[in-house]
Amino acid sequence: MLAYDRVAVIGGGAWGTALAAVARRAGRDVSLLARREDIVAELRDEARNSAYLPDIALPEGIGATTDPEEALADAQVVLIVTPSRSIRAMSELAAAHAPADAPFFICAKGIEAGTGLLMTGIAADAAPGRVLGAVSGPTFAVETAAEHPTAVTIACTSAADGATAMPDIAAARLAATLTTDSFRPYVSDDLIGVEIGGAVKNVIAIACGILAGAGFGENVRAALITRGLAEIKELAVVLGGRRETVTGLSGIGDLMLTCSSTKSRNFSYGAQRGQGIAEDQVFGGKPVVVEGRENATTVTDLARRHNLHMPICEMVRSIVADGQPIGEAFAAYWAAPIEAEPRALDISIAHPAETEAQIRFEELLP
Ligand SMILES: NC(=O)C1=CN([C@@H]2O[C@H](COP(=O)(O)OP(=O)(O)OC[C@H]3O[C@@H](n4cnc5c(N)ncnc54)[C@H](OP(=O)(O)O)[C@@H]3O)[C@@H](O)[C@H]2O)C=CC1
Ligand SMILES: O=C(CO)COP(=O)(O)O
After folding, report:
1. Over 80: is that where the pLDDT of 299 sits?
2. Catalytic: 201?
3. Which structural domain, as residue segments, surrounds residue 335?
4. Which residues, including other chains, have CB under 8 Å from residue 170's CB and lie 6 or more apart?
C-alpha cells in the first residue's frame, strides 16, 4: 500500500496541528503528541487549538495525547514538528517509542548550533538507521489549517530505505498520504537542497522585515530576495545539494512567501526591530518561535566553515546576535565591493561611497 494509514505528529503548535489536520482530512488515523494538557483536551473535545490556530475549525478525530507511547507506538510514519532547537530531543523521543520501520519526517526549518547539522542530520545522529526526510515549502500554518491551497516539497534520499522505485520511497509515500483537495505535495530526492532553503530563508526574511520596518521600499526587498536566493544556492551547492532545487517550492517559493508577508514571524520580528523596538520587547515580550534569529548564527557559522561569504545572513547576524546598529550593518552590506551577478565572473570593484553610504543610512535607520 502506497500511503501510510497511521500518522503520528510530534508538536501541538501551529504547524504540527495544521499537518495533523491535513492528514486527518486525507482520511488517515492521526495521533498528535503535545506537551500541554489544555491543548490536548481542546483538540479532542472541540477539534480546535485556540492557543496556536485561533478561530480555525479542525477535523474531528485527531487523537491528541501527552503520552509518547500512546502517540507513537502504532505509527507508520512520524512527523516531527517542533522548533529546530528541540529536534534532537524529539528525534530521540520518537526513536524510543515508534516502530523501527517508521520513517521520521522533520518539518522544522533550521541548522543545529555547534554541530552545523541540518535537521535530518540531527535526526540521523539521534535515531541511527532510521529512514529520514523533510517537509518544507511556502506554508503558513494558518492558511493550511483553513484549507487554503498549499503546495509543499517532501524530500528524502532515494536510497535511504533501500527502495528502488520512486513510488516506494518514503517521500512519495508521505505525499500520497497527505494529498487532499487543498494540500498538494511535490516529491524531491535532494534533501540537502530542500533543507538549506528552509533554514536560510528565515534569515533573509528578517533582513527584509528590518528594512521594511525602517521604512525602505519595495526595491530593496526585491534585491534582498534575489541576492538571498543566491546565498541559498551557494550554500546548498557547497554542501552537496542541487542548484535547481533552489528554484523550487522549498527555495524561492518559501523565500518569496516569508519575505513579503506580516504573517511570517521572521518578517514581523525584523519589521519590529526595524521600527526600533528593542529585542526584549518584540511581540510584546512574548516568546514566539523566530527560527531565523538563532539561525543567522548557525547558517553563517556553517558557511564560514566552507569559506563561503553570505553577506545578507552576516548582516542579520551582526544585528541580532552582535547588537550592531541597523544603519551601520546595512551600510556595511550595501557598500561592499561591486561584483558580478552571478559570481562566475571574477569582478571586484571597490565601492566609491562607503563613508557617504554609512552617514546616509545611519540617518535613515535606527
Ligand atoms: N507556523 C508555520 O507556518 C510553519 C512552521 N514551520 C516550522 O515548524 C517548526 C515549529 O513551528 P510552529 O509549529 O510554527 O511553532 P509553534 O510555536 O506554533 O509551536 C511549537 C510547538 O513545539 C512545542 N515545543 C516548543 N519547544 C519545545 C521543546 N523544547 N521540546 C518539545 N516541544 C517543544 C510547543 O509546545 P508548547 O505549546 O508546550 O510550548 C508547540 O507545541 C519551526 O521550525 C517552524 O519554522 C514550518 C512551516 C510552516
Ligand atoms: O516557514 C514558514 C512559512 O513557510 C513560516 O514562517 P515563519 O516562521 O516566519 O512564520
Report:
1. yes
2. yes
3. 209-364
4. 77, 103, 105, 131, 133, 156, 160, 161, 163
